[in-house]
Amino acid sequence: MDQSSEERLDFAAIVERLKAVVESTEDNVHQQVVGLKNLFYKLQSEECEQTKNEFVANGGNAEDFVYENSYESQFKELLAAYKTKRTAELARREAAQERAYLLKKKVIDDLQTIVDNQDEVDKAFPKVRELQQTWRDAGDVAAHQYNELIHRYQSLLEQFYDFVRISNDLRDLDFKKNLDAKTALCERAEELDKEPRMNVAMQKLQSLHEQWREIGPVARSEREALWERFKAASTVINKKHAAFYQERKNEEKIALQQKTDLCERIEQIEYENVSSRKEWDELTNQITALQAEWKKTGYSARKQANELYERFRNTCDAFFAAKNAYYRKAKDDMREVLAKKAELVEKAEALKDSKAWKETTRKFIELQNEWKTVANVARKKSESLSVRFKAAADAFFAEREKAQNGPEKALRDKAVSKIDKLRAEYNALKSDIQTRENNIGFLSTSSKKDNPLVEQMQAALDKSKARLDTLYKEIVELEKSLRNNDEQNQQ
User: Fold this and answer.
1) Which residues form the domain of 293?
2) Are residues 423 and 486 in the same domain?
3) Is 2 part of any domain?
4) DSSP class of 160
5) Is residue 356 part of a domain?
6) How many domains would you assign to the chain?
7) Dist CA 209 CA 178 (whole Å)
8) Do 104 and 153 meet the contact criterion of CB atoms below 8 Å apart?
């Protein structure tokens, strides 16, 4: 299973793949299990992050977010089953390796005895072949014991073949057998160049090298050429493997640079002074776009990638925490504004039926001015309150207008008209009195005493003055009555 195929798996496919691996009888599946485990938790981390960001973006509190994965329980059960199976396998392997070690050590000891006893060497050749088969059948030993054993084994075999005089026919037969085995290994090593999965190719090459060391020597004349062929095939794979990991290293370097750039770009987004939902939405779109870019960046070294991911995620968390705080405050402010508007509505509705026109008019004007100072909120939230407030004010002022233009107004207009008539009569009579006083004064100085005309004019003047005084009193009284009525109507 290569990395690209793993990355296309979803949770269900990963669980099914792990189940198949755990239930299989194959050896060396540990790498597959580790790869599936890493992929599962990588996908889970990404899904958790995305789900959390959506939760916060929709107004949720980051501290209240809970993530659940329906596949995690089954996945963990499979991992536990694999762990139990692997523990048992390791125990069996250790026991088998210990048995193999003892058998191979016995083979080495027997070879040493044969090499040391040169007189019996010709007779020992079948025994050596038997020991070689025992060595091969013994199985693997622990890695830390392998090198020491194989070196002693190869050295003793070479001593046996090269330095002890044995039958040429038997020696050549064994050399031919070893030559065929090592030639087959060369061919298999050369075939590895066609393997597209470099990690698989390297594992197989390492296995071929182990087998090479297990096979006995070939004729001295063919050893170098055969080894050079095997080494050349190995070099091809080693170079491709090195190139593969160099390319991966370069890709990781590019990915790290991309992640670093994204960290810097997201850290440059300023949101401390954002004061509107529109601005928050625009910045949220920028953040989610950068998060989408992050997911497209390639694989990189775990330690550095984790550090950058923590840096990137912390910046995202800080942004969404600030956005969440803004929305919480906005909700609190809106509740406060709505409460204030509701209070003003209640006051207006309590005043709308009042007949104290002047005082209530003043109060309504104060309420309207205060309404204008209260902050605006979303129309759908405050529209009903605005309708109620306007309806209360309209009802009061309509009633006031009706009262001012009804029967009371007609009576007032009549009173004003009467006062105007009396004032006109008063002004005309006052002018007439002044004229008469002038005439009487002229006649009094130019005629004799006891002039009947003067007396007649004086009597008429006195009557006019009396009438003038009466008119003045009537006007004053009517004006006073009118003022009282106006004050009553304004209360």
Assistant:
1) 258-330
2) yes
3) no
4) I
5) yes
6) 3
7) 14
8) yes
Which of 29, 39, 139, 41 has the alpha carbon at shortest distance from 86?
29
Same domain, 466 and 439: yes
Domain boundary among 309, 330, 351: 330
pTM above 0.90, yes or no: no
Q: What is the pLDDT of residues 5-28, one digit of tens each?
A: 444 578 888 888 888 888 887 767
Q: State yes or no: pLDDT of 446 exceeds 60.
A: no
- Residue 449 in domain: yes
Tens-place pLDDT, residues 283-331: 899 889 988 988 888 777 667 778 888 888 899 999 888 888 888 888 8
Q: How far is CA 361 from the centre of its chain?
A: 54
The answer to whether residues 419 and 484 belong to one domain is yes
The pLDDT value given to residue 99: 92
Report the distance separating Cα 309 and Cα 59, nearest Å: 24
Q: What is the pLDDT of residues 100-110, one digit of tens each?
A: 999 989 999 98
Is 179 a domain residue?
Answer: no
pLDDT at residue 227 tops 90: yes
Q: How far is it, in rounded angstroms, from Cα 482 to Cα 413? A: 10
CA-wise closest residue to 79 among 32, 28, 27, 46: 32
Residues 396 and 431 reside in one and the same domain = no
What is d(CA 105, CA 295) in angstroms, rounded to the nearest whole number?
54
For residue 54 the two structure tokens come to 């959506």
At residue 103, the pLDDT reads 92
417 and 486 assigned to the same domain: yes
Query: Which contacts (CB < 8 Å, 24+ apart) does range 34-40 have?
Result: 35/1, 35/3, 35/6, 36/6, 37/79, 39/6, 39/7, 39/9, 39/14, 40/11, 40/14, 40/15, 40/71, 40/75
